């Protein structure tokens, strides 16, 4: 996303649109999943005809999603579309290393909303991680003008900073909302249904950004912008397509982890990308790495270590509790 803006890209609505516009590629795994269900459903039907047992009618359905899940996914999609714009605005105005550090603060908001919406249990280790990550973002904000790009005003930089914080807050709400949708869905949550949820979510997010592009006349400007792109017209479209595809991987991973684990775990994994992003931004974009960023990065790494250490300890305790009754059970007389 930053590569798009660095070499002549100026359309924020277009950049936010790219975050979910690649959703048609999800039709490929959805189709594969449907064909697999049909194949397994055919086998089940054949076996049930000989054993007089009822078969699962859902196997033959092209769309598994029921109306309540559809409407919930649509609402989440609209919120995601707004979040896309906030995030794209921040990436357009801030260096990658700065915006990624601010986005890491979404972990604190995710933890808070997860506690309120899905009654997520917060241990001392997870609370410590949330505190450290939030403190890291605060340290970064103490000297916001230190890494301001030369061609950008202080007001533009400040607005970008605030918009990125807004994106962190909103996405911190979206992740637990997705987990709440899974918990309240009155149907089985499967791999195929998760794909359908992503498809609906991304469609509505794209619709929100499409309206913004139409109002801002971004569609008419794409061709001209591509020709003026400093890396060349061909690389412009390569950056655009690659961005759309990578974002689909991100969203599928984010909602997939919520399905397999929790919204807090998804936020933790997203935040783990912070050190990688920091290093790549310094290497490829020659961004400054001031002392504030170093302190913020250290606090973030400390927070990650604290969270995962706590998870490991909790799993060991759970295993001991599961094994304890078996070892203490009296041996029955022969």
Q: How far from one another are the termini? A: 71 Å
Structural class: mainly alpha
The ordered string of helix (H) and strand (E) elements is: HHHHHHHHHHHHH
Helix content: over 70%
| Morphology | globular
- Classify the beta-strand content into a percent band: under 5%
Tell me the major beta sheet: none
Question: Measured on Cα atoms, how large is the radius of gyration?
Answer: 23 Å
Contiguous uncertain segments of 5+ residues: 48-55
Mean pLDDT reading? 83
Helix tally equals 13
Structure summary, number of beta strands = 0
Give a structural overview.
This is Purine permease 1. It is built from 13 helices and no strands. The chain is globular and about 60 Å long. Helix 2 packs antiparallel against helix 9 and helix 6 runs antiparallel to helix 12. It has 334 residues and is mainly alpha-helical. The termini are far apart.
């Amino acid at each position: 996303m930053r590569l798009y803006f660095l070499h002549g890209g100026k359309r924020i609505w277009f950049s936010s649109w790219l975050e979910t516009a690649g959703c048609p590629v999800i039709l490929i795994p959805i189709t594969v999943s449907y064909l697999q269900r049909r194949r397994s459903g055919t086998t089940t039907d054949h076996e049930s005809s000989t054993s007089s047992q009822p078969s699962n009618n859902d196997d033959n359905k092209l769309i598994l999603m029921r109306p309540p899940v559809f409407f919930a996914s649509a609402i989440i999609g609209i919120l995601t579309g707004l979040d896309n714009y906030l995030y794209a605005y921040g990436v357009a105005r801030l260096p990658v290393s700065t915006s990624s550090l601010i986005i890491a603060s979404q972990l604190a908001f995710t933890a808070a909303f997860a506690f309120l919406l899905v009654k997520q249990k917060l241990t001392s280790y997870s609370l410590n991680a949330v505190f450290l990550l939030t403190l890291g973002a605060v340290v970064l904000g103490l000297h916001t003008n230190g890494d301001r790009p030369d061609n950008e005003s202080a007001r533009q930089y400040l607005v970008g900073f605030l918009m990125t914080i807004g994106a962190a807050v909103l996405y911190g709400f979206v992740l637990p909302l997705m987990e709440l949708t899974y918990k309240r869905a009155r149907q089985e949550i499967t791999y195929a249904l998760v794909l359908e949820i992503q498809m609906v979510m991304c469609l509505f997010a794209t619709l929100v950004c499409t309206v913004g592009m139409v109002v801002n006349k971004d569609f008419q400007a794409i061709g001209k912008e591509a020709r003026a792109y400093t890396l060349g017209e061909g690389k412009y479209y390569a950056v655009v397509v690659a961005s759309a595809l990578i974002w689909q991987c991100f969203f599928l991973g984010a909602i997939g982890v919520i399905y397999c684990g929790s919204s807090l775990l998804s936020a933790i994994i997203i935040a783990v990308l912070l050190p990688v992003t920091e290093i790549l931004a310094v290497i490829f974009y020659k961004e400054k790495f001031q002392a504030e960023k170093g302190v913020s990065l250290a606090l973030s790494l400390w927070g990650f270590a604290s969270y995962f250490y706590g998870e490991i300890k909790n799993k060991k305790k759970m295993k001991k509790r599961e094994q304890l009754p078996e070892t203490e059970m009296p041996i029955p007389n022969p």
